[in-house]
Amino acid sequence: MAFYRAPLTDMRFVLNEVLEAPMMWAAMPATAEFGAELADAILEEGARVTEAELFPLNQTGDAEGCHLKDGEVSTPAGFKAACKTLAEGGWLGLGGNPDYDGQGLPKMLTVAFEEMLYATNASFALYPALNNGATLLLDQYAPDPIKQIYLPPMHRGEWLGTMCLTEPHCGTDLGLIKTRAEPLADDRYAITGSKIWITGGEHDMVDNIVHLVLAKLPDAPAGSRGISVFLVPKFKVNADGTLGERNALSCGGLEHKMGIKGSATCVMNFDGAEGILIGEPHQGLATMFTMMNYERLSIGIQGLGLGEVAYQSAMDFARERLQSRAPSVPAAPDKPADPILVHPDVRRMALNTRAWNEGGRAFAAFVGSQLDCVKFHPDAAAREQAADLVALLTPIAKAFLTDRGFAATVEAQQLYGGNGYCVEWGAEQYVRDARIAMIYEGTNGIQAMDLVGRKLFRNRGAYVERFAAVMRADLASEASDTLAPFQRACEQELARLEAVTAALLERADGHPEELGAAAHDYLQLFGHVTYAWMWWKMARAAEHGLRQDGPAGAAFYQAKLSVGRHFIARMLPHTLALEQQIHAGAEPLMALDEAAFYPD
Amino acid sequence: MAFYRAPLTDMRFVLNEVLEAPMMWAAMPATAEFGAELADAILEEGARVTEAELFPLNQTGDAEGCHLKDGEVSTPAGFKAACKTLAEGGWLGLGGNPDYDGQGLPKMLTVAFEEMLYATNASFALYPALNNGATLLLDQYAPDPIKQIYLPPMHRGEWLGTMCLTEPHCGTDLGLIKTRAEPLADDRYAITGSKIWITGGEHDMVDNIVHLVLAKLPDAPAGSRGISVFLVPKFKVNADGTLGERNALSCGGLEHKMGIKGSATCVMNFDGAEGILIGEPHQGLATMFTMMNYERLSIGIQGLGLGEVAYQSAMDFARERLQSRAPSVPAAPDKPADPILVHPDVRRMALNTRAWNEGGRAFAAFVGSQLDCVKFHPDAAAREQAADLVALLTPIAKAFLTDRGFAATVEAQQLYGGNGYCVEWGAEQYVRDARIAMIYEGTNGIQAMDLVGRKLFRNRGAYVERFAAVMRADLASEASDTLAPFQRACEQELARLEAVTAALLERADGHPEELGAAAHDYLQLFGHVTYAWMWWKMARAAEHGLRQDGPAGAAFYQAKLSVGRHFIARMLPHTLALEQQIHAGAEPLMALDEAAFYPD
User: What is the DSSP track for A382-442?
Assistant: First the structure.
């Protein structure tokens, strides 16, 4: 009774009409082959494969979960076969370096495909999401012989990668890790320690699992400046790429979780397992950030995908559900009651969900476009500007997309009434599956600290100024009657953001607790401003499409403008509260004695 | 690893110092016996019994769930024995009429005990919650011989009651029910139909189950004006109160739900089951509202109780958890990291949770005080004023307490990082258990419609005027430096509410969709204003306690003022957004064609 069709019309609209991806690709030699037609064929086939292979396994996978027996982890029925099908279609190495059997797709396209993955099966989607981040890290930091051995089978989805960071006593504070690496002969290391919450740490879907493990060398400085990254495969790999003996690592347990039950969340024990140092010694945190930043956007897209499937499923339910009469005139007088969408409050929930989803889709694609620019653009200045925007927007993408994605699943669940709480409709699974996205990959609080600390305070607002300049340049061009409300809202909200930023920078000088106190609300404010901008872009493209009889069709453009107006009128005002809360500063938070928080 | 101790100090503070319950009880003959000392003894014993008997069954009950076999429903291990223990202690008939073996406690006390029930075991709490509403209805509407037979065993917890309203095609819109009642001899009726989502419809804890069932008589008018209430016992009851043969009703299935898994949510099939008409024919909806209003406040308290246990458990976790260093100076330089409460953003989450809980506790007790006034006050004008406030505040209590309770469980879960997502810590269960409270007993959207429709528009704002007069009279008395910010906030927010109310009433004339469009945000605004008022009351009592060396102690009063300041500075500003959203009106919601909502 869950319902999903990949929102291809909206994806095409965002890519081709809002962000003009084909024009951008054409301007960069490395992406010149990707025209609208090829992109479209990829998205259509991506929709087909995820809808056919993954969506049917979503509820069954949740019910069955993963199981550990004699050290082996079994994934839910159908996962292994689906993994093979997707791997053979090249879908698991979509953004990978083509020199090593990757598909080399622009990020703007892989973002759209990732949304389909998460929407159809968030548990499954995590295995390739980790793999993609791992290959990205190896592509950037591993020496060529290692790349030659490891990257092709990982890009082909025959092996999958993991990220082993957390230990029982430290998640956020990785400087505290205890896992150690002892040098062996031949540039090899013996890795010993225990890692927890390792997604896909052990499972039955592929021939080998490639762990990227944070550990400390014997001479490591204390804290986070003493961490290194090691590649530690489940099966040792011979020089010719064939598999050797089992490495000294094992799965010590599976977590029982609220959701994403088809994703194997493992305790991984490394007992002198052989590994290879990747990147510079003690620079592991910086090295790992290549992977972490990848995962942060990916997890943001988890929120988006789940918000989308939650919306579609709820609307599919609403299609048939009749309760009570419309406020003025019955809409279906021949039926015992009207469809629930006659009720303004039901529409409010539906429009909230939809406005977050559509704003989020544009935002994720926009971040993708900047990542493509960083990677492929021939002009250094363009690359630098894009890199600044990516640095600034990554924590927002992770936290805001997942906060809004979770809110969307909760709002969608509410649309069902009591059915939303019952397992068979699927709505409650989306809520459970979305909840983790606000927690892992750096909690959303950590993202907010990253935003106000590294991305704002450290450069005294330089990234924000850059963002404001780009946004303002985008706004200046036009303002028809239709677009004026979007333009005004953007100008007003950007001015608010700038004023809040300036005040915060001043207040935080010598008072670092002011950054932490403002962090969450500042990220929320920034997210709202960014979405307002995305809605401006979409409104502009929709108006253009209406005038030019664009490919998405008049009804689509009208609906887009209508949802956008709802966003401006009934969701964006939240910034008024955020502004005031940020100005309240740290004092109300810090006044209470620590002891007074704890229960007796 | 979950942690709960009934917040007795805060409960005493609210009862004795904020609402001055003992003085109120002394002024009413029926409650004159309840002094502070007796009330305290009851709360202490209530805390002991719920902590000892129910809390240990909460996680195990979630894991085990209820099971249906051969028509019999088994509750989780320990539930039956706990039910017996609580019944024997008189805890299951706490507010019941003492003429029929009830304990006759004031509502202000039963509200506090209900919070403990829901906090320690929300699944278990629902069985007595339904029973209490059922006995209230019977006490008001059943003829005396029926009361003599049914009420004593129900008050003693030997039998338990249920509420059978929903059918598969109708939850909100009860006018659509199909269950029918055919007259038999001796004022009996044969009830035939199928009901769903019946909490405690069948289980193994007690000897008999007393269903209150909505059904239609043969001559019933169409719609909600043709519904009647019938008492339909699982076992027929002889005139002497002994149990006769099994009635023609059975459990046809159990729902698989997101949470409250220890609560048996039953499909109940009535196959010509014998029942007794309760109240007037065709007046069943009005009759049932006695029970529904009881349940609405009770479900609000579910949100509160779960918010409280979620907060306490999270803080118990925080006590031991060390991650990263404080922004300025390390708080625990001798340890590898600082306690997480040094971080402003962690405090933000903790204070949000706590401010909702403490505001909610005062609010629930305040509604309880008005219910006591309605029931016991000797003066008719006082009863009438209290009745108006109860009518106005009941939908707010149900919806706002459950919205905030759910938000509190989500915020508390976030405090754990990844541990919050893992089952063994218990945090995720609170989220799942709290989610239903926004849905059942009339969705929170329905509560909002009740507020703007029946409680606002129908009397042209008369209840709101009354509320404003009472609140303003309460404010006028004093404004020390400490209290001035609370006073100012209340004045400002009350003025905002009045202005929004006036504008809405005007806009809604002839445009009923304006009510629905404003409903959710109006209820949220009203909830914020009400909590601001409660925080004013608490701040006043805390200041008084500080001056007079009050019983809760200086640290408690200081903390109370501190949490209150956080509420005013960092949570109340949400009203700015709500005001603007309400003024946006219905147009942005109603513009989009219904068909445009549905996925392709």
Answer: HHHHHHHHHHHHHHHHHHHHHHHHHHHHHHHHHHTGGGGGBGGGSHHHHHHHHHGGGTSSS
Domain end position, chosen among A123, A150, A177: A150
Give the residue from A351, A271, A318, A293 showing the smallest Cα distance to A572.
Answer: A351
Asked if residue A593 belongs to a domain, the reply is: no
Kindly state whether residues B67 and B34 are assigned to the same domain.
yes
R_g of chain B, CA atoms, integer Å: 24
Domain, as residue range, for A191: 161-283
The pair of structure tokens assigned to A143 is 């020496």
Tens place of pLDDT per residue across chain B (600 aa)? 899 999 999 999 999 999 999 999 999 999 999 999 999 999 999 999 999 999 999 999 999 999 999 999 999 999 999 999 999 999 999 999 999 999 999 999 999 999 999 999 999 999 999 999 999 999 999 999 999 999 999 999 999 999 999 998 888 888 899 999 999 998 899 999 999 999 999 999 999 999 999 999 999 999 889 999 999 999 999 999 999 999 999 999 999 999 999 999 999 999 999 999 999 999 999 999 999 999 999 999 999 999 999 999 999 999 989 999 998 889 999 999 999 999 999 999 999 999 999 999 999 999 999 999 999 999 999 999 999 999 999 999 999 999 999 999 999 999 999 999 999 999 999 999 999 999 999 999 999 999 999 999 999 999 999 999 999 999 976 689 999 999 999 999 999 999 999 999 999 999 999 999 999 999 999 999 999 999 999 999 999 999 999 999 999 999 999 999 999 999 999 999 999 999 999 999 999 999 999 987
- CATH for A263: 2.40.110.20
Selecting from A176, A410, A599 the residue whose C-beta is nearest the C-beta of B5 gives A599
Bridge partners (DSSP) of residue B257 are: A422
Contact B318 A597 (CB under 8 A): yes
- B464 and B538 assigned to the same domain: yes
Element (H, E) at A464: helix A462-475
Active site (catalytic) residues of B: 441
What is the amino acid identity at position B569?
A
CA angle B231, B234, B239 (to 5 degrees): 70
- Residue A134 sits in a domain whose CATH number is 1.10.540.10
CA distances B87 to A537, B92, B125, B348, B394, Å, are 63, 5, 13, 41, 28
Token code pair at residue A364 = 């994720």
Query: Domain with A455 in it: what CATH number?
Result: 1.20.140.10
Residue B185 and residue B50 in one domain: no
For strands B243-246 and B235-237, give the pairing: antiparallel
User: Which residues lie closer than 8 Å to B94 by C-beta, 6 or more apart?
Assistant: B102, B103, B105, B109, B110, B113, B132
CA B295 to chain centre: 7
Name chain A contacts of B350, Cβ cutoff 8 Å. Answer: 597
Burial readout A371-397 (b: 16 or more C-beta within 10 A, e: otherwise): bbbbbbbeeeebbebbbbbbbbbbbbb
Q: Do A125 and A213 have their domain in common?
A: no
Q: How far apart are CA A129 and CA A150, in angstroms?
A: 17
Which of A416, A457, A589, A593 to mutate to probe the B interface, most B CBs <10 Å? A589
Q: Which of B344, B439, B599 sits opposite A586 (nearest CB)?
A: B344
- Number of structural domains found in chain A: 3
- Please state the ipTM of this predicted complex: 0.97
Q: Is residue A425 part of a domain?
A: yes
Cα nearest neighbour of A562 on chain B: B592
Regarding whether B267 and B216 lie in a shared domain, the answer is: yes
Nearest by CB to A197, from B170, B339, B418: name it.
B418
Residue A597 lies in a domain: no
Using DSSP's 3-state secondary structure scheme, residue B382 falls into helix
**A22 within some domain:** yes
| Residues of A designated catalytic | 441
Same domain membership, residue B251 and residue B149 = no
